Amino acid sequence: MTWPVPAATEPEATAASKFAISFGPFRLLAAQRLLLEGDAPVRLGSRAFDILAALVERAGEIVGKEELIVRAWPQTFVEEANLKIQVSALRRALGDGQGGHRSDGYRAGLQFRRSG
């Protein structure tokens, strides 16, 4: 996956969370922890949402597996398989069944537009 905005390693509010980030038919409202497709909410688990927010914040950059794990599971040890499951769920929710995975990390492959 490929995604633009400043880096954060904790799930705290960032400059990006105050804006709506648009990509394709989707809008990410990070402050409300909401992903919309058009005007309809997209069902997305909290871990997948945290991963999406991290990728959007680092749009166009490769985000390492370790950073995504720390972001989605703070202060918890989890296997890499958990990350793969959440990324797979995220891809299904976004309608992206292929591409994006790299051995050294992940990145979002979309064009973003910030509003707000």
Q: Helical amount among residues, as a percent range?
A: 25-40%
Q: Which CATH architecture would you pick?
A: Orthogonal Bundle
- According to DSSP, the number of beta strands is 7
- The radius of gyration is 13 Å
What is the percentage of strand-forming residues?
15-25%
Instruction: Give the H and E element order.
Output: EEEEHHHEEE
Supply the helix-strand structural class: alpha+beta
- Which fold does the CATH topology refer to? Arc Repressor Mutant, subunit A
Helix tally? 3
CATH superfamily: Winged helix-like DNA-binding domain superfamily/Winged helix DNA-binding domain
Low-confidence spans: 1-16, 97-104
Q: What's the structural domain tally? A: 1
Average pLDDT: 76
**CATH C-level label:** Mainly Alpha
Shape: globular
How are the SSEs ordered, and which strands pair?
Elements (H helix, E strand, L loop, with lengths): L19 E4 L2 E4 L4 E4 L2 E2 L4 H12 L7 H8 L7 H15 L6 E2 L2 E2 L6 E3 L1
Antiparallel strand pairs: 1-2, 1-7, 2-3, 3-4, 5-6
Helix pairs in contact: 1-2, 1-3
Description:
This protein is α+β, with helices and mostly antiparallel strands and 116 residues long. The chain has 3 helices and 7 strands, in the order E-E-E-E-H-H-H-E-E-E. Strands 4-3-2-1-7 form a 5-stranded antiparallel sheet, with helices on one face. Strands 5-6 form a two-stranded antiparallel sheet. A hairpin with a 2-residue loop joins strand 5 and strand 6 (105-106). The longest helix has 15 residues, at 80-94. Mean pLDDT is 76; it is low at 1-16 and 97-104.
